[in-house]
Specification:
Blueprint (H helix, E strand, L loop, with lengths): L5 H10 L10 H11 L1 H22 L4 E16 L5 E20 L3 H67 L5 H35 L27 H11 L1 H21 L5 E12 L4 E3 L5 E3 L2 H7 L2 E9 L7 H67 L5 H35 L7
Antiparallel strand pairs: 1-2, 2-3, 3-6, 4-5
Helix pairs in contact: 1-5, 2-4, 3-4, 4-5, 4-7, 4-10, 6-7, 6-9, 7-9, 9-10
């Protein structure tokens, strides 16, 4: 068994110091972000606000009701209940109710409700899109951490190989089998591998920091993730074509639906604007009453007597009903110009929808190309690893038998490390591209 130096053990200790902590799966990371991300919470508040605006628009169908009350005091001459003026102080109290209901306004109320309805649906899809973006970003960062973890393990393997060679050469030099200079050559290679491992560890820790920041974790020093078992033979056995994925996206994905709903909202807004060309018809109802202290009334015998509160409420009650028709004739061409602006808004919404489709199709094409290219590279790297490992084994035997220099051995070792790194890069590029294509087709992100 190869001996590990104290330095190598220290690196392993740093890398494994978080093993005692609870490690996060990809699903846990995504779920935590969806529950705590600030942009998601903001989008949820916007959606709730739009729900209220939608309800407000529907409430415009209801009649309104307004109550009024007034009290007045006067000093000096006033008209009394005997219908002549006298000097003195007087006071009066009056109250009333008024109500109106919109009978017709060019269907503006109905179309306004539709505008708010489609805007609400668009906001709901925007919220879904925000969650999807967070999930994709976290998945990308998660896979980057996995990639860096495997790169770090390759770097540690290089350190372990160089460390064993240093020990072997030190023993051989002590027996006088090789010159002392060859020991320093192996130590120089070990120092270089240690530096590479340190840099690899720093890159790993930085990727963990990036992921923790996406999660908005306050404490990240003990943050770590689960390393899942990934069977590459079962990943993406059949990659869907870009057109097949796009057809699903057009029918189901939130990007497209949001743009479609905003287009419908713009079309309904145009109808609201056009409704200003029509007359408006309202039904109105009013009730009022008043009380004047000291007021009098005629009794049955024809004499004036003081009218109490009940008498006055009966005598002073007034009720009215009516219709109000407003016909637009000329408003400085405001309605005409507003209609033009609304039509431009509809055309702009159509362009936004088309732009969204084009952008998504390009993204899908790119993901499909990345997946197919990465698959070819990964399959090629598997074969390259086999050949490179055999070449390294042969070089190691020659080096151990004194038939190869330390430089030949180091070059073979470096080629093996490079081949493994290339395989890892192809592996995670392929894995991410396949997962994104599946995600476009409605599958959840998981490993």
């Amino acid at each position: 068994m190869k001996k590990i130096t104290i330095w190598t053990f220290a690196l392993l200790l740093v890398a494994g110091s978080m093993q005692a902590q609870q490690k996060w799966t990809l699903e846990q990371c995504i779920d935590y972000a969806l529950r705590n991300n600030i942009s998601i919470k903001t989008s949820e508040l916007n959606t709730k606000s739009q729900e209220i605006r939608h309800q407000q628009a529907k409430n415009q169908r209801l009649p309104d009701l307004t109550g009024s009350y007034s009290q007045s005091l006067s000093y000096g001459q006033y008209l009394n209940s005997y219908n002549y003026y006298q000097n003195g102080n007087s006071q009066s109290y009056s109250a009333g109710l008024s109500s109106s209901v919109n009978l017709f306004n060019g269907f503006q109320t109905k179309n306004t409700i539709d505008v708010q309805h489609f805007t609400l649906l668009a906001n709901i899809e925007d919220l879904k899109k925000a969650k999807e973006n967070i999930a994709v970003n976290i998945a990308s960062a998660y896979l980057q951490v996995l990639y860096n973890k495997e790169l770090y393990q390759i770097a540690l393997e290089q350190v372990a190989l160089s460390d064993s060679e240093v020990i072997r050469y030190e023993n051989m030099a002590s027996l006088g089998k090789i010159p002392e200079g060859q020991v320093y050559e192996t130590k120089a290679q070990l120092a270089q591998d240690k530096l590479s491992a340190t840099q690899s560890l720093s890159t790993l820790q930085l990727s963990l920091l990036d992921l923790s920041q996406l999660l908005d974790l306050k404490e990240w020093s003990n943050f770590d993730i689960v390393i899942p078992e990934i069977d590459m033979t079962s990943v993406g056995l059949q990659i869907s074509s870009a057109d097949e994925v796009f057809d699903y996206v057009v029918a189901n994905k939130s990007d497209i639906k949001s743009s479609e709903y905003r287009l419908k909202s713009s079309e309904k807004s145009l109808k609201v604007t056009e409704g200003a060309l029509y007359p408006t018809l309202y039904f109105n109802a009013n009730y009022s009453n008043n009380y004047i202290p000291g007021s009098t009334k005629l009794n049955s015998s024809g004499a004036f007597v003081k009218a109490n509160l009940g008498d006055q409420l009966s005598l002073n009650s007034r009720t009215s009903f009516g219709l109000s028709l407003n016909i637009p004739i000329f408003n400085r061409f405001d309605t005409k110009n507003n209609i033009k602006i609304s039509k431009f808004a509809v055309e702009s919404a159509k362009l936004d929808l088309e732009s969204t489709k084009q952008t998504l199709y390009k993204e899908i094409q790119q993901s499909w190309f990345n997946a197919t290219t990465a698959l070819v590279k990964y399959n090629a790297s598997v074969e390259a690893i086999k050949n490179t490992e055999e070449a390294f084994r042969f070089s190691e035997e020659k080096f151990n038998n004194g038939r190869a220099t330390i430089y030949d051995y180091s070059e073979a070792k470096m080629k093996l490390a490079t081949a493994k790194s290339n395989q890892l890069q192809a592996k995670y590029n392929y894995l991410f591209s396949v997962k994104i294509l599946d995600f476009y087709k409605g599958a959840s992100l998981h490993l």
